[in-house]
Amino acid sequence: MPRLLLKSGIVVTQDAGLGVLPSGDVLIEDDRIAGVAPTIAAGDAEIIDCAGHFVMPGLINAHMHTWQTALRSVAANWTLLEYFRHVHAGLATVFTPDDIHVATLAGALNQLDHGVTTLVDWCHNNPTPEHTDAGIAGLKESGIRAAFFHGSPKPDPKPGEPHFSEVPHPRREIERLLKGPLADRDALVTLGMAILGPHYSTLEVSAHDFALAREFGLIASMHQGGGEAKTPGGWETLMLQNLCGPHINIVHGNNLTDAQLESFVGVGVSFSSTPENEMAQGHGHPITGRLRALGSAPSVGVDLESAISGDMFTVARMALASQRALDNAAERTRSGGIPATSTIPAAEALDWITTRGAAMLGMADRIGSLAPGKQADIAVMSLGPLAMWPVHDPVATVVMQGSGARVRDVLVAGRFAKRDGKLVWSDVAGVRAKLAASGERILSRLEVKSISREIAAML
Description:
Blueprint: E1 4-12, E2 20-29, E3 32-37, E4 46-49, E5 53-57, E6 59-64, H1 80-88, H2 97-113, E7 116-123, H3 129-142, E8 145-150, H4 171-179, E9 189-195, H5 197-200, H6 203-216, E10 220-224, H7 234-240, E11 248-252, H8 258-266, E12 270-273, H9 275-281, H10 288-292, E13 299-300, H11 312-335, H12 346-352, H13 355-360, E14 378-382, H14 394-401, E15 407-412, E16 415-419, E17 422-423, H15 428-443, H16 452-458
Parallel strand pairs: 1-4, 1-5, 6-7, 7-8, 8-9, 9-10, 10-11, 11-12, 12-13
Antiparallel strand pairs: 1-2, 2-3, 5-14, 14-15, 15-16, 16-17
Helix pairs in contact: 2-3, 2-15, 11-12, 12-14
């Protein structure tokens, strides 16, 4: 791989020691960052002119069901209950491995296009090993860094079958993946577990799954919320059994009590919030402020492209605005007036989509910030002629005016995934056509009319 020098950009490092360089260089050697400084003499390095651009860590999407990419906009008007009924008990049951593959590939490419270099792909529509392998193949082909969180389908049981809440996570699949396609734990695509947890499974299943994740040194991530818990008091029992710790990741968590949150933060449990979809579908208010009160903070993710946009800049702003709104309302209730100052600086929102995501994955030493020795996962975003100019506060500008549409270049482990405004993937049109055909076939189950094929024909 050639040496690369990203030259004269506004470098937002997200590193406590390096901070922001108003004009700086980033040197890349092989897959790593070799230097970050105001000026670097790099000899024979290929120079990438970044004047008029932000140079920043690649974003981290901490939670997305990438298998739903072909269903974009279908769930835009559904509550969580409608989503469960139409997707998990309906549309999900007709997915083939090819559907999983093209959705995952297209979803990952779109994340790269928008400046995301690490994707937590929470795959819970994999009824066969072939479905699982198709999703993993899509991630690998895209070139993105990803944690493939292996889950389990949630259809309505057929006569004589147990409910999904009574089915332990399959040990044989975890063993197969760790011996096969995800054997290298230092590769771009690695394994995690997307388990049911005590909200969606029996206590016996939860204990089994928590212990399985710990045995194999994997992150166990689970949804928390959405109706009544399957196992009331389950979390307290699991805590007493010492099964909770940094390997546990809770997604959403809107209905957790303050006491539960305090206990989880105390043992190092991580949290992933999906603020826009949580508010839209009825989960409840995001727990951002409640975590901050405990000295913690969430990583954040898109959740469902079947419902919302895949742009992580939008997600960050949604997380920030929703908590500011809650804080402002609380102050009005307390004093009857507007707060004297904002409760959360914009800089924290950038942490949520960079350093917090890295910490959740246990990869803070590798990704999430720009510093010598770290992986060269980098996004370069144009200021444009007017959209982000003038820059008074670089970090606030990235958060409040940033957009995936403005991302010019994306590098993952030192390799371009997007360059000069175009994905390096050779056949985007082919992926788009396959995705449209997949979506139309799946949606025919609900007799939903789609115009994607007609639009594709015009492009």
